Amino acid sequence: MGKHGDFEDDGRTIADMSGIGSAHSSWFGRRSPASHDREALQDERKDARPWEESPFTWKERIRYMGVALGAALSIAFVFLAGIALVIWLITLYGK
Questions:
Q1: Residue 25 pLDDT exceeds 60
Q2: Can you list the alpha helix ranges (DSSP code H) found in the chain?
Q3: Contacts of residue 22, Cβ cutoff 8 Å, sequence gap at least 6
Q4: Which of the four pLDDT bands, split at 50, 70 and 90, describes residue 95?
Q5: SS3 of residue 31 by DSSP
Q6: C-alpha 54: how far from its chain's center?
Q7: What is residue 37's three-state secondary structure?
Q8: d(CA 47, CA 70)
Q9: How far lies 71's CA from each of 19, 64, 90, 93, in Å?
């Protein structure tokens, strides 16, 4: 294998690997309570709570939930209608 050339860094971050290999994680991926406390302090400093600053009003949220519920119910209705059709065909031509 030959040398392909000099590596040129363009400054882009592909993946943040700063937390990998820290001494605070166990074998099963759970973090120590001290790690959680440190993260909570960092979040308080940054004030990073994007879920509290929602751009939607309550009416818009209710509408979106209603549309999602309607979509789920319509899919369920089509599925149950297909099952009912198969059962009807089995009873019709089963004898």
A1: no
A2: 33-46, 58-93
A3: 35
A4: low
A5: strand
A6: 17
A7: helix
A8: 36
A9: 40, 11, 29, 33
Structure tokens at 68: 């999602």
The per-residue pLDDT for range 43-66, each reduced to its tens digit, is 555 555 556 666 778 888 899 999
Structural contact between residues 24 and 34, judged by C-beta atoms closer than 8 angstroms? yes
Structure-token pair, residue 9 = 């860094």
Q: Is 31 exposed, middle or buried (0-12, 13-18, 19+ CB in 10 A)?
A: middle
Number of other CB atoms surrounding residue 32 within 10 Å: 13
- Is the CB of residue 64 less than 8 Å from the CB of residue 56? yes
Highest mean pLDDT among 26-35, 55-64, 72-81: 72-81
Tokens of 10: 């363009």
* 3 state DSSP class of 25: strand
The residue whose two tokens read 């605070």 is 24
